[in-house]
Amino acid sequence: MTGLNRRTFLGAAGAAGLGTILGSQLANAAVPCGPRGASAVFISSYTKTGHGLDVAHRDAGASALKVDRTIPGINNASWFDVSADRKTLYVTNEDDEGGQISALSLADPTKPRLLNKKSSKGDAPTHLSVHSSQKYVLAANYNSGSVVVLPILAGGKLGDVVDLAQHKGTERDPHAHQVVNDPTGKWVVSVDLGADSVYVYKLNVSTGKLTLNQQLKLPSGSGPRHLTFHPSGKYAYILGELRAEVTVARWNSTTGKLTAGQVVPAVPAGTPGDQFPGDVQASSDGRFVYASVRGSDTLATFTVADGGKSLKLVSNVPVGGVYPRHVTLDPTENWFYVSCDTSGTLSWLPRDPATGLPGAVAGSLSIPQVNSVRFL
Q1: pLDDT digit string (tens) for 248-276?
Q2: Poorest-confidence range of 17-21, 121-125, 152-156, 253-257?
Q3: What residues does each domain of the chain span?
Q4: How far apart are CA 365 and CA 183, in angstroms?
Q5: Which class for 12: exposed (0-12), middle (13-18), buried (19 or more C-beta within 10 A)?
Q6: Contact criterion met (CB below 8 Å) for 143 and 123
Q7: How far apart are the C-alpha atoms of 120 and 53, rounded to whole Å?
Q8: Assigned CATH for 27-375
Q9: In the sheet that 370-375 helps form, which strands lie side by side, from edge to edge?
């Protein structure tokens, strides 16, 4: 199978039935600022029709996001991470050819200032994360199927790539979709949609070199996209994009090995049409897991049992837009923010902390080709 263009792959699946709720707000809704505050909210979008990088805020006691400004020169922004000292923002520039990673100063979080850009040594970098050592940024090149390591220099700037790990597919071209630390910070984990695999690496913090420790192969055609860890650090939830399902995997942080277990559907049996899950998140109390699902355009809720070992799908609610790429829990975990690429809408839904269930869409913001949201 030939390479899949990141922004055109399956993009027409949700084009029909476009309907949005623009600018409405849930009556008497209240959302206090979280302990880490919401002084700035970063919103990414593709720049064919979108803005790149927007900075927004929430007024005290409100759920609605209000965009304050667009930061110039940040093309095709798709994913964010922030340094531990909260002084630097890192952004993927997801160009189909010749991808880059941008570093921005957060001296004034409401007005990020570009420090520099560096090549990702690949095409369409779709995800990044700051390594726990705070010495490197890790990035996943979707079109190229590779993971790269960029050193963090003095003042937060990025250096040139010091290592590149190339994935290999058997039935399809590799498409690295995510790269994160495990909860202990000892291991680097990358999810590859094309290779139907999750790769576990050891990073030499002195040299920035990656050494492959495990390739967990999932069933052919599963197309894993993202994963998230249970707060206990003992389990990971691997979301399939080409099969609408979540695989529960036991995580051994001593050996750096994943063991696949239960597989749970992300939509009820008999749901019509094609379904392509987008993003997966876990609540901080470890009681719930959430996934956005493109096709039915819903937010799936799973309850967690057996200390993280098992999931049960309990709800799928409409997200008020078409093709929900990513879902973000705000710092209070009282609100979901869902980025719907095809409809160009960023919607928010209340969350009941007792039941874990999302309510009806409370409002939305119009942002063409919106991708993801990051609260500072």
Answers
A1: 999 999 999 999 999 999 999 999 999 99
A2: 17-21
A3: 27-375
A4: 33
A5: exposed
A6: yes
A7: 18
A8: 2.130.10.10
A9: 65-71, 53-58, 41-45, 370-375
